[in-house]
Design brief:
Blueprint lengths: L7 E6 L3 H12 L4 E7 L2 H7 L6 E4 L8 H10 L3 E6 L4 H9 L4 E4 L4 H12 L4 E2 L1 H16 L7 H11 L4 H8 L3 H15 L4 H10 L7
Parallel strand pairs: 1-2, 1-3, 3-4, 4-5, 5-6
Helix pairs in contact: 3-4, 4-10, 7-9, 7-10, 8-9
């Protein structure tokens, strides 16, 4: 009797052509995976308007929208994000997961692990490679042990705009304040949160429930 295998729709957003081709080839060989859109940037991916509900394998260092902001964008379109990145430091992992990624692997992962992660994410679960899982555990312990400093209303506005991918100049114009004042707010936000780079700040915005303006 023929048994129909439930297909997992997977899209790939990766700007390195050789790695993208190798990844698509490995995915295509799996009997339960259907590869849809493949793109080199988030802008290109968005232009295809793929149906929501599938898994998107996403690199973080993309041209244009990138890092945690890219995760936010793809998740907002109704997809489940599995990050596969050459960068696997703690800050990148935490920011991506806080922004809504369901899984995180480095590009050192072999095809079997990537497929295992795709299946877990498609099933509604999370998957982080064992070498990176300790980051999430450590972060959880720190949040439970530490005291979180509250942000002012203006600092929350600034942080929300950072999470939306806005530059300092754009934030200044949106809030009708000077760029110097924006940077002063960012300095205080960094002091209160410990986040430094914009990807970390985006992750912090989502951990605090600050939704970026559309």
């Amino acid at each position: 009797m023929d048994v129909t295998v439930r297909q997992i729709a997977v899209c790939v957003v990766e700007d390195h052509p050789l790695y993208r081709a190798a990844l698509v080839r490995a995915l295509s060989e799996a009997p339960d995976v259907t590869v849809g859109v493949t793109a080199g940037s988030l802008e290109e991916f968005s232009a295809y308007r793929p149906d929501p509900g599938g898994v998107v394998i996403l690199d973080l260092r993309l041209p244009g929208v990138r890092d945690a902001a890219a995760v936010v964008d793809v998740v907002g379109r109704g997809h489940r994000v599995l990050v596969v990145s050459a960068h696997g430091d703690q800050r990148d992992v935490l920011a991506a997961m806080a922004a809504g990624a369901r899984g995180y692997l480095t590009k050192n992962s072999d095809a079997d692990e990537i497929l295992r992660a795709v299946r877990e994410v498609a099933a509604g679960n999370s998957y982080v490679s064992p070498t990176l899982a300790s980051f999430l555990l450590e972060s959880s312990r720190e949040r439970q042990a530490g005291v979180r400093l509250e942000l002012s209303d203006r600092e929350r506005e600034v942080l929300g705009l950072v999470a939306a991918g806005e530059r300092d100049q754009d934030i200044a114009e949106a809030l009708n304040i000077s760029v110097r004042t924006v940077r002063s707010h960012l300095d205080r936000i960094r002091e209160k949160t410990g986040a430094r780079r914009r990807a970390e700040l985006t992750g912090e915005a989502y951990r605090r429930g600050i939704v970026p303006p559309s």
